[in-house]
Amino acid sequence: MTEIAKPLDNLIHQLRERAKELNCLYEVQELLSAPNIPIDEICEGTILALPPGWQYPDVCGAQIALLGGKTYQTPIFAETPWTQSADIVAQEQIMGKVSVCYTEERPLADEGPFLKEERKLIDTIAEQFGFYLLHQQLRQVFQEQMQEEERKSEWEVILDLLKRTDPGLLTRITSKMVNYLFWNKVKEAERLIRLVNPVLHENHDTLGENRPYQQGPETGILSISDQVFTLASQHLSSSAIVENIQRWIKEDRSAFLVDVLANPGSSLAEISAAIERFHLLSPQGIELTPPRERWFRTSLIRRVLSDQPWFIGVAKDYIGIDDFGGFMRRVVFPAGSHGKLGGKSSGLFLAELILRESPQRQEYLQGIKTPKTWYLTSDSIFYFIGYNNLEDIIVQKYKDLAQVRQEYPFLINLFKNSTQPPEIIKGLSLALDDFGDVPLIVRSSSLLEDRAGAAFAGKYKSLFIANRGSKEERLEALMDAIAEVFASMFGPDPIEYRYENGLIDNHEEMGIMIQEVVGTQVGHYYLPAYAGVAFSNNDFRWSSRIRREDGLVRIVPGLGTRAVDRLSDDYPALVAPGNPNLRVNISLDEIVRYSPNKVDLINLDARSFETLEIRDLLKAHGQEYPLVNQLVSILHPDRVQVPGTRGVDFEHQECIVTFEGLISRTPFLKQVEAILKTLQEALGYPVDIEFAHDGANFYLLQCRAQSYGEDSAAAEIPSDIPNDEVIFTAKRYITNGLVSDITHIVYVDPILYNQLATQQDMIAVGQVVGRLNKILPRRQFILMGPGRWGSRGDIKLGVSITYSEINNTAMLIEIARKQRDYTPDPSFGTHFFQDLVEASIRYLPLYPDDPSIVFDEAFLTTTKSILLDILPDFAHLSEVIRVIDVPAVTGGRVLQVLMNADRELALARLTRPSQVLELEARKDRGRIYREATNLHWQWRLQAAENIGASIDPERFGVASFYVFGSANNATAGPESDIDLLIHVRGDKSQQEALLTWLEGWNNCLSEMNYQRTGYKVSGLLDVHLITDEDIRNRTSFATKIGAVSDAARPIAIGTAKKKNGN
Amino acid sequence: MNPNAYNPFEIAQEQFDHIASVLELNHAARDLLRTPIREYHFSIPVRMDDGSTNIYRAFRIQHNDARGPCKGGMRFHPLGTVDTMRALAMWNTWRCAVVDLPLGGSMGGAVCDLHNLSLGEQERLCRGWVRQIARNVGPEWDIPSPELMTSPQHMLWMLDEYETIHGAKSPGFITGKPEDIGGSSGRKESTGYGLMIAGREALKELDIKPGNTKASFQGFGNTAQHAVILYKRMGGVVTCISSWNQADQTSYAFCKKPGIDPDELLAITNPFGEINKVKAIELGYECLPGEAWVEQDVDILVPTMLENEITPEKVEKVSRRVSIIIEGADGAINPAAEGLLTQRGVKVIPDILANAGAVTSSYFEQVQSNMNYYWKQDEVLGKLDVHLTSIYIDISDFARNRKISLRDAVYLIAVDRVARACQERGWV
Predict the structure, then answer these.
(1) How close A600 comes to chain B (CA, Å)?
(2) Which of A219, A419, B218, B369 has CA 20 to 30 A from A610's CA?
(3) How far B116 CA sits from the closest chain A CA (Å)?
(4) Torsion A806-A809-A813-A819 (CA) sign
């Protein structure tokens, strides 16, 4: 029984012990977790709770000893050999000790007399106590902090934090604050600034001296940080300080961008990466002060787009930092590139943003797009050259122009056979993936192109590629096109242009724009519905009611290439957006005659750029052609009609392109006008733009300062021209231009013309003009006559001529004399206006009855006329029509007409031939590079003299040898021939031999001329053989010998042979 | 102004005086016919787009209406003078009389340059013109039609204003209307067909079958195109056609000895009547200089392009085979050249007779408009053929009886018809 009872008792005993231990723990926990009980009470309670938890409570004492604090113990507690302890630990530090002791010896158990459970208990209690103490400690710190914060202001906290975490930032902020205070006229700040800003250490004058500034002893900004902010707190409200600090901290986040942009050595890749980073950060709030933002804008514009001050000046108002993010991803550049995008790209980019940002005219500016574009930076050309070891090419511009011209075809070949560096290929491949297989145009975008005043219009190449086939083929075609555009930088035309504009020594780089061709597929062709160019200033007014600022649009179906270039065989539609109701063409004849009949497009099958007859295209694909009803009019025998709702039956109806629907039924012109006006206002100068419409959207393709071709720039009119040199001046309806080297004036006397008695005589005047047009040197004569040249239907209304009878004139001048009480409106050559435009024949109305202008009637009516020498059959008209040989009657001078639309002034004066003038001017400017190639007449004369010298007079039966015409009178141009007059006495076979011999010279001289000028003229020699009989009868060209006008110059013959013989 | 200066009205009067002498007209008839019977000179205020007002001088000259309502063109030209209009009005009287239409002659217009006027301003000008003269014109009195620088659009505006003023539809007031708004079908064919109807009658007189003849044409505009089509249908063979080439600024003659297919050529001709040189050569045409058209070995020459084209020098080059020249272009044959041709026995069908198709179809348009019933094309062209054939025979008989040229006959018969109408009305 006892055997059984024993273990049971034991168990009960053990359970009692555990219950005691648990009670003890609970009690202690209760004490610890009770809120707001002071620690003394807890400790007191705890020591009382401990002994009952132990096996022998009656002899058990307890103690809590807190480190650096009080000790709490039960009365019987003493240090005995039977003591058990546990450390109170908080944050790995011993904070005190919990101990339990037996005052008397008790039987041995697990740890002396103590049970292992009791050890666990005391440890747990000590641990709980540790937690409690930690909590108390934290709460105290927290409370203290709360109290402190109540005392300290927010900015001090920030500064404290910075002091501990980012002293660098604190330095920058302190420095900013001290500057801020200084600028806000806080006097004491000056003292502080002297401490931090070495520049103000000394007297200001020392800085001006030409010796290096001596830096004073190092001073730490950080050290005065507290002073600075104390000062700040005296002058600024707490919230103002916080606001500033916060702004500066945010700004400081963009410092990396400053570092990159301020460093001229940072590459485009670094800039691009920095922009990217900025872009990623900006959602988290990078706030920039206006000056810093502006600095970013201008720096980015300078580094990426253009460093031209005028460009930056305008662009900074429109281009934001975010705008760079988008397109930098589409810029392909070599590693370490420092290139830019070039003029064309920058111009378009800016124009797009101006249109987007302009609040005015938004109604018309919305929805204007620009085609997707990838860019190659301007220095890629040198990277390409370097990669292929073509460095020799760079000096091309300093070579003789003839050599440049000769080498150019080889150079193109060389470039095309070279490869792009791998990273560029990678970039281009990405571009192609982005574009897909839409046709592309590869355009130059050079640095010099964006300089105001040097438009380089059409000097560098633009190439279309169909972009069809496998990726490899497409990449190949793209690289081929880029190489060719690169090569055009070294072509003779741009080099010549740079010489002429004083830009040859300027550094030139060529960027590339790879642009999606705006268009849609029509059959197997790809083209836009229409495209064109538009100008702010209208320099081809066709009515006195059109003002210059009404602008001009040249528009064609299909690709805009036909609108950009002057055409010899076709006409773009012309319309003035500011005055769209005044049409160029009124009668059906005019409308049909001057409607575009060809279209440029990309043949996707043949992968080529082609020109088709619009008629053929419409017959085959009229129904698919986008916006066709806006473009064409149905042609009836007596009128044209805009297609109605039924559209056009292309099979059976004849139609012509008039753009009538587009002009009269859509806001197209308003849109163009809004674009031109907005851009002109923003940029501050007249612009020209290229545009295209794919049937869905209007695209802006290019924007630049309105360019004036060589023939349409405003002529400078000197004010000091002596009166006796001026033949006429004009002040109304002036266009820009310079007409030089006029050797002949054809003058139809308006009064005498009106008095002609018969219709036959009037017709005859037209015939004479037509004949003179064929005889006089092309573009070296001007026609002056009564109003309305070419009027149809009624001879009385003006000299009856067609365009083909005046197409060689340089200028058509209409003399509008007062009739009774009114002066007739000028005709502007309306009946062949578009022919004049395309052929660059200048038109000018004169008002001789206006007292404020010069009209030297005496010169025109009394100087010798050579009409009878040229056309002896028309003796009866010799008073009405006068042909004045200007050099002959003025001692070798020629007529020059200077026209300046800006000043609304034109002036015709007698002067020396332009080449002579130019040469002198060039010598003055030190630019005489082109002397040899430009003096076309000089080497022609030289050539004639050489031919004369080498002629064998006996062998060929030559009696004498003359040169006449442009080579003789110093007016020869690059296309001029050399007129030779050879007096022969030999027989037929000798003459034939002579002509054969001259043929050799002829071929040789033609080639020489090509090398010099790029003009291919077959048969430079124009040989006229005359006989004794001709000279006797003064027939044929024999009249040239000793003639009053353009007399032939005799040349010594056979001298070379004599020299050799001797 | 110099009194000797060229004055078209004086020239027209001189011509008339000459014919009047031949016809031995009495004094009153001469006095009446050498000047217009009525003249209206007026001013049209036109409100411009910018709000200002411009005043345009305008005229309507009615030369004679003894044979019926006057009919004549409207021209807008900046240098138009009243004497020019007087001359043209007189011409129109003769022109209608030659073709034996029951119409008189008139002319009118305004002094302006349409290049300086917007479409809106042009409309206001046209309406203003009608407002000033609406009581003195009309389908029973004087009928305007398009001429220099005026278009069917201008005619429609004028018609609309006239109908508004009169409170009634009156499509017969004006001719040259678009085909779908009161115009006549067959108009584009009529001039060209007229040339070849006259040619056919002339061949008949010479007893030559059209099927045995060849012809060469100068020009390939609307007139020539339809003349060629009708001639081919008659069995004739066209071997050469010349046309202007704008790009080269010259004309070329395109030849095909076995005969030209007009449809083939039309496919490569632009709306302006210019044949595409490259494509023509591809199609096997021989391309010669433009003047070569006159040198062809053919029976009939038809100049349709330029005034004063056949000069005495060119007559030298005309083949001996040529028996008829149809003067499609006004004044194409120089008077001296005509003398030489007549000596060679070449029959010249003068412009006023050759082009009778145009004025006849314009008359047909007016007739149909007055009825407000429009004939089908076949009917128009059938009536045209009947009418032109009969007037050719009339004039040719007259010429034969009097032993004079067709050209002289034309003027005599015209003046004679008008003078007789005046007499019968008891005017003179």
Answers:
(1) 17
(2) A419
(3) 6
(4) negative
Closest-CA residue to A300 (of A334, A335, A326, A332): A326
Mean pLDDT of A709-729: 83
d(CA B344, CA A273): 93
The whole model's pTM is what?
0.72
Q: Would the CB atoms of A637 and B187 count as touching at under 8 Å?
A: yes
Answer whether B59's CB lies under 8 Å from B84's CB: no
Q: Is B77 in contact with A586 (Cβ distance < 8 A)?
A: no
pLDDT at res. B1: 42
Give me the sheet containing A462-465, strands edge to edge: A331-332, A373-376, A510-516, A440-446, A462-465
Mean pLDDT of A884-904: 89
Note the pLDDT of residue A995.
86
Spatial contact of A224 and A174, defined as CB atoms under 8 Å apart: yes
In three-state form (DSSP H/G/I as H, E/B as E, the rest C), the secondary structure along B295-327 is HCCCCEEEECCCCCCECHHHHHHCCCCCCEEEC
Backbone phi and psi for residue A364, each to the nearest 5 degrees, phi listed first: -100, -15
pLDDT, position A199: 54
**Are A654 and B146 within 8 A, CB to CB?**
no
Counting the structural domains of chain B, the total is 2
Whether B319 contacts B298, CB under 8 Å: yes
B200 and B322 belong to one structural domain: yes
Rounded to an integer, the average pLDDT of A314-332 is 83
* Chain A residues touching B247 at Cβ < 8 A: 568-569
Q: What is the pLDDT of residue A777?
A: 84
Q: Which residues of B touch A589 (CB under 8 A)?
A: 272
Residue after which a domain boundary falls, among B354, B382, B417: B354
pLDDT at A792: 53
ipTM of the complex: 0.84
| Pair (B198, B268) in one structural domain | yes
The model's pLDDT over B198-243, given as tens digits with 9 standing for 90+, comes to 999 999 999 999 999 999 999 999 899 999 999 999 999 999 999 9
Interface test with B, best of A566, A582, A598, A765 (most B CBs within 10 A): A582
B153 plus B199 within the same structural domain: no
Output b/e per residue, B404-417; b: 16+ Cβ within 10 A: eebbbbbbbbbbbb
Asked whether the predicted pLDDT for residue A452 surpasses 70, the reply is no
Residue A1059's pLDDT is what?
46
Q: Which domains can be identified in chain A, with CATH numbers?
A: 2-149 (3.30.450.40), 164-206+221-253 (no CATH), 270-329 (no CATH), 333-517 (3.30.1490.20), 527-605+612-706 (3.30.470.20), 723-925 (no CATH), 935-1061 (3.30.460)
* Residues B191 and B336 grouped into a single domain: yes
Please report, rounded to a whole number, the percentage of residues in chain B having pLDDT higher than 90: 83
3-state secondary structure of B75: strand
CB A236 within 8 A of CB A230: no
> Are the beta carbons of A757 and B6 closer than 8 angstroms?
yes
The alpha-carbon gap from A833 to the nearest alpha carbon of chain B, in Å, equals 11
Structure tokens at A409: 């075809």
Lowest mean pLDDT, pick from A628-637, A709-718, B399-408: A709-718
Mean pLDDT of chain A: 82
The answer, yes or no, to whether residue A144 has pLDDT greater than 70, is: yes
Domain stop point among B147, B173, B199: B173
A918-958 tens-digit pLDDT? 666 655 554 444 444 456 777 788 888 888 888 888 888 88
**Same domain, yes or no, for B262 and B332?**
yes
Q: How far is B57 from chain A (nearest CA, A)?
A: 13
> Has residue B193 been placed in a domain?
yes
| A680 phi/psi in degrees, rounded to 5 | -65, -40
Contact across the interface for B247 and A569, Cβ inside 8 Å: yes
Alpha-carbon distance of A713 to A900, in angstroms, equals 8
